[in-house]
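in:
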């Protein structure tokens, strides 16, 4: 039997399973999925988990069951590409014939002193739970600072506003205006929402140091009760430690067939892969579909396509609490209730297909 090992049961590898298990898995291939968490976690909803507006159960989806699928719940501690082995904490290494690395990303702290020690995170389900506890145990009128005005910072700030109207919320953003790379209409809409809902957006922020309950913005100290970090990501530490070629963001440079150069049997999917787009769940899923096509052809000994098609992305949708949202669909700006309904619809469809 050939052994395909999947590291991480996130958006990328869940799509691999969804494509392979019902239709394309040859009888002589077994799959081993390894994840530290015993379910697929809906990372795109961690902001709501941290804010306390959805329950823990709502961000969990059961892994599929199949006679040729074996699941190991363990912490991956390393990968030996040459020995074809995955190292696990507290148990024997797992060998592979083919490997798909889909371990997602970690926070990036840009070498800002104290940022990793004194800030909370929503990058893993465990960290989002810790952040939920900290935020929701705060007494009235506490100050929460969210560093990073990208999609997850905006979603967290707005959701927390609806969850805890008594808190003082500050959102620190580097840009002159919030979402400065988006069309002006979206940027204005989001800023208006924050103005109307009493979230203080601090533009042109430059966090230089973090201490316990103290944030230094352009070297000026800002007292705050809790700081949440949403100001950047980098590939998972296991991937950062791999001795292979990476791009400027530390993501693994791949061949057009999504495998590591010189390792035809090792693929990287999702946030750890160097692709010509910003990392996202939909990108991970689109790439996973292509990996399944390549894997299947290689198993069948068929020729690979000369070029791989471009991965099609549908757009971006962000929420502003439970009723409003914004987005870019096919380069068209959308704002308001319709954007929020679309976002909820996407999540519903995702859960429906996985359920
Ligand atoms: C708040 C927030 C909102 C977002 N909103 C959107 C959105 O609206 N649309 C969108 O497209 N994208 C969104 N994203 C980005 C999206 O979540 C990621 O791009 C996507 O999850 C990447 O998928 P992946 O398969 O690479 O990894 P992930 O989905 O992150 O999965 C990684 C898996 O690896 C496991 N793992 C990690 N390290 C180890 C280890 N050492 N040992 C064992 N297991 C391990 C984890 O438990 C996890 O199951 C959002 C992200 C955040 C944080």
């Amino acid at each position: 039997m050939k052994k395909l090992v999947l590291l991480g049961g996130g958006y990328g590898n869940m799509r691999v399973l969804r494509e392979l298990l019902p239709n394309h898995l040859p009888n002589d291939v077994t799959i081993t999925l390894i994840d530290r968490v015993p379910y697929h976690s809906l990372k795109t909803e961690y902001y709501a988990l941290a804010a306390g507006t959805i329950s823990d159960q709502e961000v969990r989806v059961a892994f599929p069951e199949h006679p040729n699928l074996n699941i190991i719940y363990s912490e991956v501690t390393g990968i030996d590409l040459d020995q074809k082995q995955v190292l696990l904490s507290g148990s024997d290494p797992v060998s592979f014939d083919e490997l798909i690395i889909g371990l997602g990303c970690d926070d990036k702290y840009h070498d800002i002193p104290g940022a990793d020690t004194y800030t909370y995170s929503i990058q893993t389900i465990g960290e989002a739970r810790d952040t939920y506890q900290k935020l929701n145990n705060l007494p009235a009128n506490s100050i929460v600072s969210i560093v990073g005005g990208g999609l997850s910072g905006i979603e967290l700030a707005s959701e927390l506003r609806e969850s805890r109207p008594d808190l003082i919320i500050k959102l620190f953003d580097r840009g002159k205006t919030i979402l400065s790379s988006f069309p002006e209409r979206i940027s204005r809409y989001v800023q208006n929402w924050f103005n109307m809902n009493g979230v203080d957006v601090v533009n042109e922020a430059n966090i230089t140091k973090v201490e316990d309950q103290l944030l230094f913005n352009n070297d000026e100290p800002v007292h705050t009760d809790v700081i949440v970090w949403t100001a950047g990501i980098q590939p998972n530490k296991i991937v950062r430690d791999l001795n292979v070629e990476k791009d400027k963001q530390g993501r693994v440079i791949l061949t057009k067939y999504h495998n590591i150069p010189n390792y035809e049997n090792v693929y990287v999917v999702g946030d750890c892969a160097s692709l010509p787009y910003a990392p996202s769940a939909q990108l991970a899923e689109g790439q996973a579909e292509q990996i399944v096509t390549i894997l299947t052809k290689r198993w069948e000994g068929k020729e690979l396509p000369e070029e791989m098609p471009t991965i099609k992305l549908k757009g971006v949708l962000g929420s502003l609490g439970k009723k409003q949202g914004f987005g870019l669909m096919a380069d068209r700006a959308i704002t308001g209730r319709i954007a929020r309904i679309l976002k909820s619809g996407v999540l519903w469809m995702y859960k429906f297909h996985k359920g």
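note: The first strand starts at residue 2 and ends at 7.
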